[in-house]
């Protein structure tokens, strides 16, 4: 029954996409369509929650797709969890878009693709055969590409869309090869593939292909380049969907294939996943700390969080390969919990960045500032998202990352010395990434909302409408609730973890005061309720004491401004100056950074300027030479369409002779 309802939600979303083609492109139609899109999205979330609460896995075959095969759909615990993630993210983005879309200059370039994009993501999760999975994956990629291309008249947008489409095509080709290895006997249905044994060599090859296919969509390094280009180019409600939700659909594809369909993997394969994940986390957050564009910084932060998730998944593979099912369930539960949390706080932050863009017209951090006075509700909700993504207690980001580190602390039980070295090293990289994340978001929030306005746009900003604020408020509440009572969330995730590891965490909601006890009470515990109570009571007591015993006299005086007589926004910390220490330490090594200092002579009151030019090492050393090689090959191959008949016949004859020679040598 639940599978049929989920299929109806997909059908409703696809129908809304078709209806958007004939609806007039005006604000009224835009609000109507976005509001209608939120309903099946919310329905999908409720279906996923009901399935996780104890529903039985069920399947459905539709008379679509390949002849004599049909489209197989199935709703199990893993699909239900991602249905919940997509549904919540899609419903919040749709509600937000009612307000955000009112000022879209060309709503017809977004409306026909937005509901279908959510529906395609739901269909990827429900697919139970290779053809339906790959078909819905490709539809998801094409619709998201069309959404990225919304502002197609801008050169930067066209460049970002081209890069995204290229990476998506390469990822789909890798997925196609992976399913070719999975369905070597000609089986398309997941049930048949799951029952077919695969050798460790084939399973490892499938893992490599999935790291490329799903990793390119999720944002794993070095396949991450499209994220900081495409996410800022897309409208903000689309950015929230792509970063908060679509990257999790890619993680679902990796989980479904590697953990469910491919079969057992050798232990050494997990080491590659752990190192790639940890390296991606550090690389992503370093770039986020250097970015001067608010949405670009958030896109790089998504790369960091994807790295954390894949590092946890690599730990789960390592534990599972050694028969440590309880530890594997812990690592997998941590990854799933962080998937849910990242959907909540990253969607919230992209919506906050969109609200700032809507109110000021700029994403440049050096042109913002002082918005806490002009956009008080947005600033408060964004502060919750910033606190959550910085992994500060008692919000949800801390709870999931704490569980990841609890998994790392189980590494001494692994029998392989290589893993006993690699896992703590990866844990150190994840700890570094967590510390840099806190610095990156102090920088982002401080530059955008604190201080004095740095531009006329920031000085005249205004609060956004109630639809945008309601969507952000719902996600902020989710961050707080999942952080204060994570035990309830983990218990709902237990069926999905058990499906892939045959084990689950102990019942967390049964512990006193909802304390998290992932391993044993004597080893590690965390009680977010007590932490929240301590922060609330001490904060209230400090405020009361300051009010009770402090002076009631109002004293005003000029703020100290670094020796300058007049308060000037130019003397505040900027995006570059905040990141300057890390640029100087790590820039020459990791970013090939070069410095340029402009120091005015004595007596000149102009502030000194410090400019740093950094380079994307991966783009310059890997992608640019590859792009140049492809362009040269394409230029040469382009001549083939201008040959004479005689030369075409000669090419055909040469190819035939070559194939006959290969066949003779083979025999």
Automatic annotation (TrEMBL):
Pfam families to which the protein is assigned, alphabetical: Proton_antipo_M
First-listed, main subcellular location of the protein, grouped into a coarse class: membrane
InterPro entries according to UniProt: ComplexI-like_HydComp, ND/Mrp_TM
Signal peptide span: 1-20
Keywords assigned by UniProt, alphabetized: Cell membrane, Membrane, Oxidoreductase, Signal, Transmembrane, Transmembrane helix
Matching PANTHER family: FORMATE HYDROGENLYASE SUBUNIT 3-RELATED (PTHR42682:SF3), HYDROGENASE-4 COMPONENT F (PTHR42682)
NCBIfam families: PRK06521.1
Protein name listed in UniProt: Hydrogenase 4 subunit B
Gene transcribed to yield this protein: hyfB
């Amino acid at each position: 029954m639940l599978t049929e309802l989920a299929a109806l939600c997909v059908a409703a979303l696809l129908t809304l996409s078709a209806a958007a083609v004939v609806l007039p492109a005006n604000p009224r139609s835009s609000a109507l369509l976005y509001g209608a899109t939120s309903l099946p999205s919310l329905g999908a979330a409720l279906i996923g929650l009901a399935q996780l609460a104890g529903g039985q896995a069920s399947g459905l075959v539709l008379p679509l797709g390949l002849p004599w095969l049909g489209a197989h759909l199935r709703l199990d615990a893993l699909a239900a969890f991602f249905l919940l993630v997509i549904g919540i993210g899609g419903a919040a983005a749709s509600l937000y878009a009612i307000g955000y879309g009112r000022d879209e200059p060309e709503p017809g370039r977004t409306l026909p693709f937005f509901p279908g994009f959510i529906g395609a993501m739901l269909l990827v999760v429900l697919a139970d055969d290779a053809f339906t999975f790959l078909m819905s994956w490709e539809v998801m990629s094409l619709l998201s590409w069309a959404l990225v291309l919304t502002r197609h008249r801008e050169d930067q947008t066209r460049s970002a869309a081209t890069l995204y489409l290229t990476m998506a095509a390469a990822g789909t080709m890798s997925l196609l090869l992976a399913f070719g290895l999975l369905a070597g006997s000609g089986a398309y249905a997941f049930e048949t593939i799951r029952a077919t044994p695969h050798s460790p060599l084939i399973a490892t090859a499938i893992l490599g292909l999935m790291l490329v296919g799903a990793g390119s969509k999720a944002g794993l390094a070095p396949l991450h380049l499209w994220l900081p280009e495409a996410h800022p180019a897309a409208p903000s409600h689309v950015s929230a969907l792509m970063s908060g939700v679509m990257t999790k659909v890619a993680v679902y594809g990796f989980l479904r294939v590697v953990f469910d369909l491919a079969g057992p993997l050798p232990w050494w394969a997990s080491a590659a996943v752990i190192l790639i994940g940890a390296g991606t986390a550090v690389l992503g957050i370093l770039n986020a700390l250097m970015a001067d564009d608010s949405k670009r910084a958030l896109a790089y932060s998504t790369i960091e969080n994807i790295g954390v998730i894949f590092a946890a998944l690599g730990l789960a593979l390592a534990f599972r390969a050694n028969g440590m099912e309880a530890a594997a369930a812990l690592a997998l539960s941590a990854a799933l919990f962080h998937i849910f949390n990242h959907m909540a706080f990253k969607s919230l932050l992209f919506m906050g960045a969109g609200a700032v863009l809507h109110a000021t017209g700029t994403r440049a951090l050096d042109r913002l500032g002082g918005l806490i006075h002009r956009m008080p509700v947005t600033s408060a909700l964004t502060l919750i998202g910033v606190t959550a993504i910085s992994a500060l207690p008692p919000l949800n980001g801390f709870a999931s990352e704490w569980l990841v580190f609890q998994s790392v602390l189980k590494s001494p039980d692994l029998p392989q010395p290589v893993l006993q070295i690699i896992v703590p090293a990866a844990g150190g990289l994840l700890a570094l990434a967590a510390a840099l994340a806190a610095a990156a978001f102090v920088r982002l929030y401080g530059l955008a909302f604190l201080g004095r306005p740095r531009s006329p746009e920031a000085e005249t900003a205004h609060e956004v409408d109630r639809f945008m604020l309601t969507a952000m408020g719902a996600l902020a509440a989710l961050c707080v609730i999942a952080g204060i009572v994570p035990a309830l969330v983990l218990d709902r995730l237990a069926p999905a973890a058990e499906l892939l590891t045959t084990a689950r965490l102990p019942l967390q909601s049964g512990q006193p005061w909802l304390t998290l006890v992932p391993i044993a009470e004597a080893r590690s515990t965390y009680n977010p309720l007590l932490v929240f109570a301590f922060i609330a009571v001490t904060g209230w007591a400090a405020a009361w004491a300051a009010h009770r015993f402090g002076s009631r006299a109002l004293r005003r005086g000029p703020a100290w401004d670094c020796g300058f007589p007049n308060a000037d926004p130019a003397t505040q910390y900027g995006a570059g100056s905040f990141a300057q220490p890390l640029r100087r330490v790590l820039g020459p090594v990791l970013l090939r950074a070069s410095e340029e200092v402009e120091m005015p002579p004595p007596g000149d009151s102009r502030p000194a300027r410090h400019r740093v030019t950094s380079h994307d090492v991966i783009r310059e050393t890997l992608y640019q030479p590859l792009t140049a090689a492809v362009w040269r090959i394409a230029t040469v191959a382009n001549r083939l369409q201008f040959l004479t008949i005689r030369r075409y016949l000669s090419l055909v004859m040469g190819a035939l002779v070559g194939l006959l020679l290969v066949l003779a040598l083979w025999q």
